[in-house]
Amino acid sequence: HLAQIAASSTLEAQGDNNYDAQNANDLNYKNVWVEGATGYGIGEYLEFSFPAQHPRLTRIIIANGYVKSESAYYNNSRVKRLKVYWYHERIGSLNLKDEI
Fold first, then answer.
1. DSSP character for 22?
2. Cβ neighbours of residue 35 under 8 Å, at least 6 residues apart?
3. Looking at the chain, which terminus has fewer C-beta neighbours within 10 angstroms, N or C?
4. Is-contact 1 48, C-beta < 8 A?
5. Mean pLDDT of 85-99
């Protein structure tokens, strides 16, 4: 069973590239979710919802930034501090490295 993913905003598709929230769960680093808010995306988020019978999560892998290419990485914003919530309760914060 796949997770349902909601985003606070999403950048409109550009040419053949779409930036849908579901891209954050397809295991393809060339597909990305990009927030669609003005500015640097501070406060934007993804929300993952899993069905009750979903296997237990044991690891979360984060590719921070648009890692499609080196130029895409450096020409776009990246997350500096990531807040993690479980059932709307904050359970931690992660400081992410700024490296490709």
1. G
2. 7, 8, 9, 10, 11, 41, 44
3. N
4. no
5. 93
Burial of residue 33 (CB within 10 Å: 0-12, 13-18, 19+) is buried
83 has pLDDT over 90:
yes
Extract the tokens encoding 58: 């044991």
Percentage of residues of the chain with pLDDT beyond 70: 99
DSSP annotation of 29 reads T
Mean residue pLDDT across the chain: 92
Q: How far apart are CA 46 and CA 44, in angstroms?
A: 7
- Hey, what are 2's tokens? 């796949």
Q: Do residues 78 and 72 lie in contact, with contact meaning Cβ atoms separated by under 8 Å?
A: no
What is the distance of C-alpha 79 from the center of its chain? 9
Instruction: Tell the burial category of 73 from Cβ atoms under 10 Å away from its Cβ (0-12, 13-18, 19+).
Output: middle
CA distance 66 to 34: 8
